[in-house]
């Protein structure tokens, strides 16, 4: 879930939906970008073009539903990053057999949360209907992804509006393009606040301090999560007198890869990422890891609250929760002991970690 500052520049992603050789799509997208450039530049709007032919997604080949955010292929992760970075979309689409191009539907299907709570405008083109039936079909799909189709639109009849594969110069068309950008960015600004909170997957449970929101982590949380992790493990490095700690070495790609084996949760306070944790089942154990709380938020109960939440997510078949920390991380060890954990290797392990376990209260 995006957590950009409300006044951060808006990113508009123009998606070129057709992919066949000799297509008209890129010329239409180029015209749209040219026609809106002065307005975009003046308003500090960043316009990026994603040409589905260059992006080259295969037919959907991810094993998990995209709402899980678990992506095993780099092409999906790259697409996820492009879409997650956008605040709004302009879909430049032809009409194929009264509908949207298959490449466009496929590009939508690859992702889920990355699209949500963002507006979408259309520049369509075609023969008699100027691509409008394709737009109608696309609207049905985008609303399922929680996108908001805007009212302003540009619909080009190829015979009237193009010549030699280029859009014919027209002040009226340029004005219509600017109208799309203008409405799109107004709606995008208003929708930003929706993306800091109310997705149906959010867990609205009362926390120990105000303004907390606990959610499953999404791909666009990960960059911020990595920063938080490094901040938190610097303290671990100092306490344990070593820099040889995996959480300090991890890259964004490592973190992304971890989403295929771990469930990750994030806690935001008034929109800012302040805590996180991950867990996975291994045989009868519920392994809990990377419990972190931003240093300036430590001591206000967020860590214990998050730990208790993640314990409750353990699958029924697990018998105990297990975690580890540095043997000199006395603050962590105290927190875990207060939560009912007991050290399993009191003298520590050769790598300097100590393991703690807690039996689960199994329901009768
Ligand atoms: C597979 C296919 C189906 C098409 N179906 C329609 C259609 O239903 N309505 C229409 O107005 N034009 C249709 N056309 C013509 C397109 O509008 C025209 O070829 C346009 O240039 C396609 O966009 P592109 O060049 O970016 O691929 C179709 C073209 C193709 C290749």
Fold and architecture overview:
With 364 residues, the chain is of the alpha/beta class. It has 2 domains: 186 residues, Flavodoxin domain (Rossmann fold); 148 residues, Aminopeptidase, CATH 3.40.630. It is 35% helix and 24% strand. The strands form 3 sheets. The chain has a 7-stranded mixed beta sheet with strand order 8-9-10-11-12-14-13, with helices on both faces. The protein has a 5-stranded parallel beta sheet with strand order 2-1-3-4-5. The protein starts with 10 loop residues before the first strand and ends in a 5-residue tail after the last strand. About 1% of the residues have low confidence. It binds flavin mononucleotide.
Q: Averaging pLDDT over every residue, what do you get?
A: 90
How many E-type strands? 14
CATH topology of the largest domain: Rossmann fold
Radius of gyration: 24 Å
Low-confidence stretches: 197-201
Structural class: alpha/beta
Strand order of the largest sheet: 8-9-10-11-12-14-13
| Count of folded domains | 2
**N-to-C terminal Cα separation, in Å?**
37 Å
- CATH A-level architecture of the largest domain: 3-Layer(aba) Sandwich
Bound molecules: flavin mononucleotide
CATH class of the largest domain: Alpha Beta
Q: Specify the number of helices.
A: 12
The shape is elongated
Q: Name the CATH homologous superfamily of the largest domain.
A: Flavodoxin domain
Strand content: 15-25%
Query: Tell me about the biggest sheet?
Result: 7 strands, mixed
The H/E string reads: EHEHHEHEHEHEEHEHHHEEEHEHEE
Helix content: 25-40%
């Amino acid at each position: 879930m995006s957590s950009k500052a409300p006044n951060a520049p808006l990113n508009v992603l123009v998606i070129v939906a057709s992919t066949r050789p000799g297509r008209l799509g890129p010329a239409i997208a180029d015209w749209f970008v040219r026609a809106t450039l002065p307005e975009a530049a003046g308003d500090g709007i960043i316009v990026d073009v994603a040409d589905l032919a260059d992006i080259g997604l295969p037919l959907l080949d991810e094993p998990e539903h995209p709402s899980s955010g678990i992506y095993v292929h780099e092409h999906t992760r790259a697409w996820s990053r492009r879409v997650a970075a956008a605040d709004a979309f302009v879909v430049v689409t032809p009409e194929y057999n009264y509908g949207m191009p298959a490449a466009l539907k496929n590009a939508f299907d690859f992702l889920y949360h990355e699209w949500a709570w963002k507006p979408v405008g259309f520049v369509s083109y075609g023969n008699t209907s100027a691509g409008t039936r394709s737009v109608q079909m696309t609207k049905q799909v985008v609303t399922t992804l929680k996108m908001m189709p805007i009212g302003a639109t540009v619909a080009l009849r190829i015979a009237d509006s193009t010549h030699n594969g280029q859009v014919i110069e027209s002040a009226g068309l340029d004005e219509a393009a600017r109208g799309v950008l203008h409405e799109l960015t107004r709606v995008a600004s208003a929708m930003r606040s929706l993306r800091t909170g109310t997705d149906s997957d959010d867990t609205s449970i009362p926390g120990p301090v105000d303004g907390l929101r606990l959610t499953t982590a999404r791909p666009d949380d990960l960059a911020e999560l990595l920063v938080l992790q490094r901040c938190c493990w610097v303290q671990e490095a100092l306490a344990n007198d070593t820099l040889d700690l995996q959480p300090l070495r991890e890259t964004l790609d490592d973190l992304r890869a971890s989403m295929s084996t771990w469930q990750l949760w994030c806690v935001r306070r008034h929109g800012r990422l302040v805590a996180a944790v991950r867990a996975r089942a291994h045989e009868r154990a519920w392994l809990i890891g990377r419990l972190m709380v931003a240093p300036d938020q430590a001591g206000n109960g967020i860590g214990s609250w998050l730990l208790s939440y993640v314990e409750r997510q353990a699958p029924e078949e697990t018998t105990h929760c297990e975690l580890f920390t540095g043997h000199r991380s006395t603050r962590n060890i105290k927190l875990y002991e207060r939560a009912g954990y007991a050290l399993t290797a009191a003298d520590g392990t050769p790598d300097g970690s100590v393991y703690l376990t807690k039996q689960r209260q199994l329901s009768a």
